[in-house]
Amino acid sequence: MANLTVCVFSFNRGRYLRNCVESIQRCIPNANIVIFDDHSDDPETLEYLRIVESSCQVVTPGKVGSIKHGGLYHNMNAALEGFKERPLMCFLQDDTQVVRLVSTTELDEMESLFDHNPTLGFVHPCFIRGIDLKKRPVIPLMGPTPDFFYRKDSGQSAGIHYSDLVVFKPGRLVETGWSFQQSEPENDKQAKLMFDMMAYMWLPFAMWLPEVPAYRGKKKTLGLRLAERKKKVGFYPFKIITLDELVLNKKKAPTRLPVAEDFLECSPFSPAAPWTYNPLTGLNFLKHLNDFEVASRRWFRR
């Protein structure tokens, strides 16, 4: 029986972290859950971390340098090093959720997928974001088995060989000398050199929550705060579905891609589609304002 270790990377979003962890506990009840918290300091998150220590392992890594994504990739490397003996590992973040029940049979089949494909580095467990289709089409290619597909490279910087949300065999990464770099594009380039294309699931089990608040460098700029207000960011958790429901929906249109907006529903209601996952998406003026403030902070720190 495959043993899945789920690492959740967290910072200052206690409500979202609770939702993520509880979705794992509900949908993958035998999973080992490890929370890597990047030195959260808000009371809600700290209180939840104290509560959840009784059922999950909580890791607070050492202080890391100030980079765009905080300590995310440093923490990923810490997770890989600390749990490299585990048979199967999944990386999620506090603003994501497991959306359906995942059986032990599915986990066994996924472990077998890796065993029978020694050059496979990563499996992507999430639905496709509808907003991404506005930028470029997602063209599926024949995958390693009928349950998976590869994504044709249409020039995007990431998502062909790597994503920050993945399932993988940690021992395989260690054997190849893998070390997480400081951005998705850098990791995608590295994965292209080491592994085959990333496998996408036709029946995914996880997804980013839409319209969530965001942090850049752990501080909100004025542009970001205004964007969050305009987008009405909030807490929009997904309703849990079963694999049977997902299969039934897929049978209605077998060639339809697993786009989140087509298969998932939020509670108590779903935001307007296409969902966005960064408050600055589509708000060019506020994005420029945010970028100006970030650049100004760097200049004044000199």
Short note summarizing the structure:
35% of the residues lie in helices and 14% in strands. It is an alpha/beta fold and 302 residues long.
Shape from CA axes? globular
Roughly how many Å is the radius of gyration? 19 Å
Continuous helix count: 10
Level-1 CATH class name of the largest domain: Alpha Beta
Biggest sheet record: 5 strands, mixed
Count of beta strands: 11
Main sheet: which strands, in order across?
3-2-1-4-9
Please, what is the CATH homologous superfamily of the largest domain?
Spore Coat Polysaccharide Biosynthesis Protein SpsA, Chain A
H-E string: EHEHEHEEHEEEEHHEEHHHH
Low-pLDDT ranges: 63-69
Sheet-strand content, in percent, reads 5-15%
The name of the CATH architecture of the largest domain is: Alpha-Beta Complex
User: Which fold does the CATH topology of the largest domain refer to?
Assistant: Spore Coat Polysaccharide Biosynthesis Protein SpsA, Chain A
Return the average pLDDT rounded to an integer.
91
Distance N terminus to C terminus?
54 Å
Structural class determined from secondary elements = alpha/beta
Characterization of this structure:
It is a single chain. The protein is an alpha/beta fold and 302 residues long. The protein has two domains: 4-201, Spore Coat Polysaccharide Biosynthesis Protein SpsA, Chain A, CATH 3.90.550; 210-300, no CATH class. It has ten helices and eleven strands. A five-stranded mixed sheet has the order 3-2-1-4-9, with helices on both faces. A four-stranded mixed sheet has the order 6-10-8-7, with no helix packed on it. Strands 5-11 form a two-stranded antiparallel ribbon. Helix 7 (222-231) runs antiparallel to helix 10. It starts with a strand and ends with a helix.
